[in-house]
## 1
Amino acid sequence: MAVELSRESRVVGEDAPDRATLVRMYETMVTIRAFETRLVELFNAGKLGGVLHVYIGEEACAAGSCIHLDAGDYLLTSHRGHGHVLAKGADMNRMMAELFARETGLCRARGGSMHIIERSVGILGANAIVAANVPIATGAGLAAKWRGEGQVVACFFGDGATNHGAFHEGINLAALWNLPVVFICENNRYAQFTPQRLHAKIEDLAIRAASYGIPGVQADGQDVLAVHKVAGEAVARARRGEGPTLIELKTYRYTGHAISNPICAIGRPDEEVAAWKTRDPIPLLREYLLSRNLVAAPDLRMIQDAAAARVAAAEAFAEASPRPRPETALEDVYTEWPAGVPL
Amino acid sequence: MAGGGAAVRELQYRDAIREALREELLRDPAVVLIGEEMIDPWGGTFGVTKGLSTEFGEDRVRNTPISEAAIIGCAVGAALAGMRPVAEIMFFDFIATGMDQAVNQAAKIRYMSGGQVNVPLVIRTAGGSGRASAAQHSQSLEAWFIHVPGIKVVMPSTPYDAKGLLKTAIRDPDPVLFIEHKMMYNYKGPVPDEEYLIPLGVADIKRVGRDVTVVATSRMVPRALAVAERLAATGGPDLEVIDPRSLVPLDRATILASVRKTHRLVIVHEAVERGGFGAELATIVGAEAFTYLDAPIRRVAAFNTPVPFSPELEDYLVPDEARIEAAIRETAA
Amino acid sequence: MVTEVRMPRLSLTMEVGTVIEWRKAVGDRIAKGEELAEIETDKVNAALEAPAGGFLRSLLVAAGVEVPCDTLIALLTASADEPLTAHGAGLATTTGTVGDQLPPIPSADQGAAPPATVDEEGGRPHVNASPAAKNLARELGVDLAALAGTGPGGRIGLEDVQRAADARRAAGAAPPTMGRVVPLTKMQAVTAQRMSVSVGTVPQFSLQRRLDMGEALRYLRNVRGAGKADERGPGVADLIHLAAVRALRAHPELNASFQAGDPPAVLLHEEVNLGLALALPEGLIVPVIHDAHTLNLQSLAERRARLQADARSGRLSVGALSGATFTVSNLGPMGVDQFTAIVNPPEAAILAVGCIRNIVVPDPLQVTAVIMVTVTADHRILDGARVARFLETLANNLDHLDTKS
């Protein structure tokens, strides 16, 4: 099967999405950026516990692909999943409450950042085990195919996941059974702190698709239009019953692997970070919209402000929410349990 | 057991399991079987699924590559998205290669989601020794899983129990590990014609007795019963043999009531002694029935070694009737 | 140098004692006067203090086992490792090292494998019995320390306990009962034994007299003044005590003890130590007002009140329970009109006091307060006439309490 390695950085002409779509994607990216930025501030102020894997710099990947998903489609993502989850339509208030470990959180404070699940909008979950979501996405794809209603599964993971056994097993099975799953690798060049050249001998991870007999496609992850194009094609293939695609998006995260760990501050060369920051996806899209007179600057400012307001409202909601009562820790281990038998 | 008037047949353990699978495939279109070598003409390594792919098609009885992580992970995803998958792990030992999906994913997703979702899957597997299959094809690993909150663990010892428990497991909304014994597939026993379910968390008193409570699992149940008959015939202690059937949830009430009656407990399992189910049960009984105990609680289990290839060595490791009887006599002294 | 520790005789009447609990372990360094054990006697519990400092080298008696007074129960040595083997007959041999265990002590019955051994850790004996056996033994009142177990390693099992209970029942020691078996408290057991001895060995007889309390009550009102009576102030009982004590001075043969011998004699006591029978939840106890003959009404009342308070809070010392020469038992406050007490050996007599009642006297017609008293006396040294004269004096004393005795 074909593997298209793309080094194009701009999509033009008939391939470009319409204005409404562009505005929606801009709004999604700006919202993710505002949310994640505020989270870093809150975390450093000691208001959030646990670990935080922040998506800043990768927003175009989530925005450009998730816009193709309907409410009935399924999403699986990784520990760095806030962007996808927001792009899929998660309730931001309840997501913030989850991060604040409040009873009103999406997961009643049981899951935290790495396990955000919102069943009602098809978010089957973020996963803290690298590559574990790949076979699970295959299973969701099996159910989608069985149901026969044209559902699609989007599965996001990073470059490190592509070395894991579960990745290999899961994609092989999805390919074998021709399941409607789009596997999206956000290659931000680092698996935890290890640069790609130290964890894989190859440069372009998309070529791994060939070993499963499925198409592999590559795109510039900072260019939301490029992401939109390749993701749209893969989702359409899946809906048509043509099986899975492996997409590799070349992208970069502007913060360290996790916020909590001091090692995260070390390791990446300053020039590298600076170079990637010149390709910040949000200014890139803004420049595209303004230069083509698709949107006026004040409108963009409005979108920005609205996003900031949403984040502030979510924070207020979370702060005002109660903490879970300790004894509720024993609830929901099982759906059914015989009465009178101790847990 | 069967109600009055119902017809009863002698079935093999493997056939009883197949019947359960077939009945549930018929009943619920969401049920799907996933595993290695499951489809015809092989019908599974132990012949359990023979005929099912022919009857239901290869969309509902699905053959997989050798990929335990994918098998279990696929079952997790399918369960989350509305199906009722029954995954098969051919030999219990292989579950180690799919442990993340069983333990970190299947068992925990409901809890992590705050109760939003559940994972109604079954993992069937064949454990135990006796076929000279050596260390990596002969283990009994239930102790690993009783230690993981969120998963249920079932070990049937008769065709009747296997069928009723498997149907319940498939209908159960939570992940269930259903542990068969590879040496018991040929064992025969009565199975009613009419449909029946056995709930989880209910132990079965396989033999009522006065003097010693013997709790046994899987292949050790028939051995304990044989010892009971021999002791009865020779004027030895009168054994009460209890098969817990599900280890999680565990019917501790039945076991404790028995110990309060007999004042003595011997636990027999094929799994290695150290950290086995026997350790868990002994502690529960020691705590809850302390003042009723007239003798120390004994475990009869496999010695703490891997399973060797040689049949003599293999048989030596696992509790045989002589070893079980010796432990009982010592307890009753 | 080896120091012997023996079961102490804490009172004149103490015959046997039991170590309730060893407070020290073999190998411990002991200071002189430090508490080695808690001892139970027929009267109270007391601390057994080390007669000298040194190292505790062996415990010769297990807790819970009753031994006669003066029995050797422990050994101390000045240094930690001097040998014990040369000391005395019948002792188990120990080597010179500190912390050695002692082999088990033969139990009271047949020399079967004894169940109780001294534990390494705390000097507390470990009973080799199953939890179920211990539970059943507690319910049936079977003493595990006296049992030999037939289980592995001599372990006592349910069957052993049941067999012991059945044997005891068969021997008639306890009446077969369909009801609930409640073991007697130590106090009750002592009373049972002593009263059996009294009735069994002392020929006793009783005399009653009605005491006119009119003058005595007038005296009491004067003494109390205008205020209400309270427990610590003198009461009716104290009037009786004062009158009785004075009567005993006049009739010393009732303040005495029979002495068997050749020839038999009566021991006339110098002082009057007045025993007061007191009922506690655990049983009957008789604390003593020593030298009652030296006390006035107020002091008698104060002593009585203090003894009652100490008894209720369990603070009575062994001394407070010994040395009585005459006992008063008063059931007046409980509404009993009149009763006959049993002599409390080795005392010669006991005074049983009933409750104060108002009766109508026809001639001259008046209402007067009276109390019925009964003296039970040892007929080996007292006869009816002597006791009658004592009662006469007692009655007179109540009319003349204001005179100095």
Note: The CA atoms of residues 42 and 210 of chain B lie 47 Å apart.
## 2
Amino acid sequence: MPILSIDFLINGLASGAALALLCLGLTLTYMTTKVPNFAHATIAVVGAIVTLLLLDWVYIGLRGGAVYYTLYIVAPILSALIAGLLALTIYIAILRPLSKKGIGIIGLMIATFALDIIINNILTLILHLTPSKYIGKLIDASVKGYGVQVYIPILDVNIYLSRLLLPIIAVILTISLHLYMTRTKFGIAMRASIENPQLAKALGINVDLVYAISWFLSGSLAGLAGSLLAFEFPGINPAVAYLYIVSIFAGSILGGLSSMYGALAGGLVVGVSEVLIPVMIQNIYYTITGSVIDIIRYQKFISLLIIIIVLLVAPQGLAGVSWRNLLARVVRVG
Amino acid sequence: MSLLTVEGLNAGYGKFHILFDISLNIEEKEILAIVGPNGSGKSTLLKAITGIADVYSGRITFKGSDITRLPPHVKARMGLAYLPQTDNVFTNLSVWENLKMAAYTLDESIARDRIEEVLSYYPILRSRLGFKARSLSGGERQILALAMTLIRKPEIIMLDEPTGNLAPIIAKDLLKKIQALREDLGKTIILVEQNAKAALEISDKALLLVSGRIEYSGFASKLLADTELSRKYLGLR
Amino acid sequence: MVELPIIFMELANMLIFIIVVLALNLMAGYAGIPNLGMALFVYIGAFAVAGLSVRFAIILVNILNPDFIEMMRVTPPYKYAVGESPILDIILFKVTDPAVNRHLVPELNSIIGDSIPLSIMILTFILASAIALGATLGLIVSFTAVRLREDYLAIVLLAFSEMLVQVFFAQVDWVAGGRYNTWALTPWPQKLSQSLGNLLPSGVKPELFIGLIVAIILAITTLIYTERIANSPMGRVLRAMRDDDLALTSYGRDIAKIRLKVMMVGSSIAALAGVVYVLSVQPVVKATDYTRATWTFIPWAMMILGGIANNWGVIIGAVIVYIGRKLIEILAPPAFTTILSFIGVEVTGTTIDIVKAVTVNILVGVVIILVLYLKPEGIVPEKPSKTLPRKTLNSLIEKFRGSSS
């Protein structure tokens, strides 16, 4: 048994891409409004549920056909929009007013903690009360999963379509975001506002609009990731958000919570590690002892470990590492 | 023609009363230096005029209209520019991006022209256009900050210790550039400086603040020549 | 009409929440540690009773009665699960095996019940181990807290709690039962139970009554301790320092030591609350039941409602939230059924439990946000401290920064 097979690599990549998007969203709202958003994973689940509803109500028939594949485009977009609007609402209706009243970071954190539980429970309610077109309630249907696999000739593997799409979409989004932030006036204004809101305000930039958009963007990214994950993961239980948020924090802390590229890198590393490290350990164990151990269940421990190590060793995360110095030491210039 | 007048200003931060009964008058194209020992309220005076510090009583008039209680961004639009000592550029943005942000509220074509003007006036920035502001030297950063201010075509530029943390040669050069703002561009300047001698040398008028009160108000050259005051409060020999 | 056993049970449960909130108040209000991982601290007490003490008990019993474990090998239902495994293996791994556990624990209970010295030893072990575990957790957290900013600390605490309770203890079967239920010891002497059983009205189990008494004692003790801290000059200093990192670093060691002590006591109390919970309300222990919704979220809501750092305030908050929760649990299912029947959706069996839990959580969350918005100091606000509030301090520092004028 090879230590790593192609489909595990792709799975790892998909997991990394999803987490990269989620960490990007979390870091974005952290950089702008300084609040760690505990509700972020749940917002991703909102996207997943929207997609699930869409798949259940709209899609009729076998997995395949034009309607099904169109949904691969429509669902993520719709989910991203709804999740983005939700995040925007959270900022405008709750966090911003609280902040204006003088509530500090801890209080705002508790507010997002409370919102996390509120939204998560509402989702549970929806899952348990909404009838599904196929079996019983939506919660039962979610167990079936709607994923379809495609065959990739070059690599000779079967991969869930959504897992293939995730890294591609993540790359496209990253490039688009980068272009937006560096080539457009408002994009540059966003970076300016993040760095020095006072100066930005003095120059006439609507910093509050920047903050609002950052929340919308953050929610959309979460909704998008959640949507794609919904396509193939059997069993969307909103409670998975409770554990997933730990991974999101791990990736963001690894990224340093201070740059968007750090967030992407951190999310990628954590996401890939969570899938690959248990598999590698399992394979090595099997090669040595010939018996199988199930340690996939403990993959979240990797996130905890990463958090601890980063905070102990390099609290600034990847963003704090001076890449230029590092490069200068490794590569000889001249 | 009096551009800016301050009458009977009492100001501070919240409960902390820093400035007592300050009055001053600055004409068009004048350079006014505000000097004094540490903690005397020099920065606070600028901040009170801009609207960042709290004004308890008194009046500030700009071009004849009362601007005492107006918010900072309105005053900025009226032509009063304020350059703080630190955090006056976006360090993570390039020089070019900084200038674009300074021109944020202007029309595209006007913005382009203004940025071009400013780059011609300070050619050093042109050679640093793609560099992030944080990689600029201290002096270059202050020049960038000046450039950003000039893009808005202000009438009065108020600078808060622009030469702080700069090496003496660079500081001297910067002060020359500040003087040039009046010579070349006809701007009116209020300059708060710790380095009293250098500031007074390029200024027309001077205000000596001690413990929040005016100790001297008049010609800068006279203050420089007054050995007693300058020794006592400015550390000059 | 509501029967006595239910009243006692609810009373015990409410007291336990009061104890937990007082502990949380110590941590967040005095030691300045925003503990979003409270569930772990409570669970660790439950673990002491279910996971640790069972093993201690079986060892103890085996010492006194050397054939006990041997006997297990040949007697059904144990023999199929235990078989030929070495003794150490049995103690470490098999004790929590559901096939073994659900027979073993009652048997141990009756053995312990017959012997007062055994009973006392087990009880002592339970209390000691719970306090030890709790205090150790408190120690670890305090050390981490010194190096981290508040928001990072909150994240780490949450992560820690979720990982340990919901991943480790909930998945590793042999440590604490993992995915299966484990039973907790009820180490009360038989004589005590019997005599109480005669005195108490029918339906009220002696264990419940004893548990209730213990809860009352623990609650009162905790309140006395926390009030002493609150009224001491150190308490006032702690409260003032809580939000001011700058002052904290300049004050140094002494404050750090007191904070550490307060944190460790708080954690031990939380663990003891877990013990009392298991002994009186819920002897079936499963890690997944110790959710952050119940043991972190609800105590925080109680504390915010009542007023952080104010002991009497948080007790009032606890009572209000607890009673509110009970009311919602009673009213929600019929309300939902009626409303949904208009749309044609039926609410059945398990869904009702879910509806109950969900509605409670949503409403508690809404309450938290409302309180933060309308009256963030809580119902009974903290007595003002003499230092400037952080926001004023910060804005002053902002304005003075960079200018030497």
Note: Chain A touches chain B at residues 182, 185, 188-189, 191-192, 195-196, 198-205 (CB under 8 Å).
